[in-house]
C-alpha cells in the first residue's frame, strides 16, 4: 500500500510538473524516461517505509531493488522492440505486486514471522503486529483511500463503528470468489474493521470503480480462506501465515 500511495504521489508530482513546463504527454514522448521515473517512484517510498519500520538494509534493498531492476529490464525490452510503447506502463504497474510477493518468498520467515530486523514476533492471529495497523491508519491509509477501489484488488470497505456508529472506510486487498469477496486479515481478527464488519453484517465495498453492498460477512479460518483464493495466491498467503479471512457474500441486487 505504501508503494502504491508513494508511486501515485511522486508520479503526479513529476508528470504534473513536466506538464506545467510544457512537456505534456511525457509517456509517449519519452517512454524510457517515464518508465525509469515510475520505477523510482515505486521503489523509493517502499525503501523509506521499510527503513522507518526498522527493517535491515539487505531485505530493504531486495524489495525496493526488484522494481528498479524490472524497470531497467523493461527499458531494454522497449529499446529492442520486445515490448510496445503503449504497453510499457501497464506491464510495469501490473508486475509491481507479483515482484514484491516473489521477494517475500525468498525470505518467508522474515515476512511471515517478524515485523522488524530485530526479530519482534508477529501477533498471535495475524502476520503483522498491531503497531503496523496503527501506523498505516495514521500515515498510509489517508493517502490510499483517495484511489482505493479504482485499481486492481485494492478495495475500499465502508463499515459502521459498532460502538461509535460512525462510518469508516478501510483500504484492503480483496479477491473475487464464488459470488463474493475474500479478504486476508493481516493484523489479526481483533482489527477494528474486522469486528465492525462482522458486527454490522451488511457492508459497502468499492472495487474497480464499482460500489456493491454485501449482506453477509463471515470470519473464516486459514483452510477455508486459502481454498477461496485464486490458486496462484495461496502459496504467498500460506507463507505469510495469514490465519483468518473475511468472506463477504450475498451481493445485493
Automatic annotation (TrEMBL):
<keyword id="KW-1133">Transmembrane helix</keyword>
<dbReference type="GO" id="GO:0016491">
    <property type="term" value="F:oxidoreductase activity"/>
</dbReference>
<protein>
    <recommendedName>
        <fullName>Deazaflavin-dependent oxidoreductase (Nitroreductase family)</fullName>
    </recommendedName>
</protein>
<feature type="transmembrane region" description="Helical">
    <location>
        <begin position="30"/>
        <end position="49"/>
    </location>
</feature>
<dbReference type="InterPro" id="IPR012349">
    <property type="entry name" value="Split_barrel_FMN-bd"/>
</dbReference>
<keyword id="KW-0812">Transmembrane</keyword>
<dbReference type="Pfam" id="PF04075">
    <property type="entry name" value="F420H2_quin_red"/>
</dbReference>
<dbReference type="InterPro" id="IPR004378">
    <property type="entry name" value="F420H2_quin_Rdtase"/>
</dbReference>
<feature type="transmembrane region" description="Helical">
    <location>
        <begin position="61"/>
        <end position="79"/>
    </location>
</feature>
<keyword id="KW-0472">Membrane</keyword>
